[in-house]
Write a structure and sequence with these properties.
Structural class: mainly alpha
Shape: elongated
Number of helices: 11
Distance between the termini: 63 Å
Number of strands: 0
Order of helices and strands: HHHHHHHHHHH
Largest sheet: none
């Protein structure tokens, strides 16, 4: 319920500029805000979907990139206590039960700890890159919306202008004021597209920088956990204790190839 209220507030803030635009148009043409939006034509439907997607993505990515979500204090505490006790298997199982990016990175590194420091660090960095790539993909959708929405609005404007000039060609310019009013109405599509694109681009750049900061913090906390790890004593240790599918080649077990 709380998340729903927060989303509604963000959505209301996002549509404040468009509301003001609609209010000015209503005063000039004596139409309601909904009527003004309808004047934008068919393109207002995809623009509306883009606006919903923009609000959802900004809120979702904001929470996903918070330090409390990426590197929860409880996960750090559990991992540190297990490492201090030398219980690496327990640490792996605890991180496997958790779902934070920090737990995923530590679990991946622990799965390779028996192969030495280099393998552990490579596994850690690879998992950090995976987390970064997953979140960056979500952020990139904001850039796509920022590019596509004005194009959709412009397409709607061109479609409306085509109808206006077609009407002008058949009926003549008997009422220039009516023609200018009609042209002003179809420009609503372009304006609406820009009103959605601006916060989408702002969210893209802001959240991209926020993600970079969060990823650096994630990597630092994970590396700090493995600092001075006793790799010599952990050599060949199967900390993950996961099921192994890579058995010996069948020609070694059965050189003649006979069943």
């Amino acid at each position: 319920m709380k998340n729903t209220i927060q989303k509604a507030v963000y959505a209301a803030l996002l549509f404040l500029p468009m509301t003001a635009f609609g209010a000015e148009a209503s005063k000039a043409t004596e139409k309601t805000f909904i009527d003004v939006l309808k004047d934008g034509g068919w393109c207002m439907y995809p623009i509306g979907l883009f606006s919903i997607a923009t609000v959802w993505l900004i809120i979702d990515i904001w929470f996903r990139t918070n330090d409390k979500k990426m590197v929860p204090e409880e996960d750090i505490s559990v991992a540190q206590q297990a490492f201090l006790a030398g219980d690496y298997i327990g640490a792996y199982q605890a991180m496997k039960a958790a779902s934070s990016p920090f737990a995923m990175v530590v679990r991946s590194a622990l799965g390779s700890v028996g192969y030495g420091k280099s393998a552990t660090e490579e596994a850690l960095i690879a998992e950090v890159d995976k987390v970064n790539s997953t979140l960056q993909t979500r952020i990139n959708y904001l850039s796509v919306i920022g590019v596509c929405t004005p194009m959709v609005g412009l397409l709607g404007t061109v479609s409306g202008m085509r109808g206006a000039f077609a009407s002008l060609g058949s009926a003549g310019i008997g009422d220039p004021a009516a023609l200018s009013g009609h042209i002003g109405e179809v420009l609503i599509a372009t304006a609406s597209g820009l009103f959605i694109a601006i916060p989408a681009f702002m969210g893209f750049y802001f959240l991209r920088n926020k993600l970079q900061s969060g990823v650096h913090h994630l990597e630092e906390e994970a590396e700090r956990l493995f600092r001075n790890a006793p790799y010599d004593y952990l050599k060949d240790a199967d900390v993950g204790q996961e099921e192994t599918f890579a058995a010996l080649p069948n020609w070694i077990e059965n050189p003649q190839g006979v069943a």
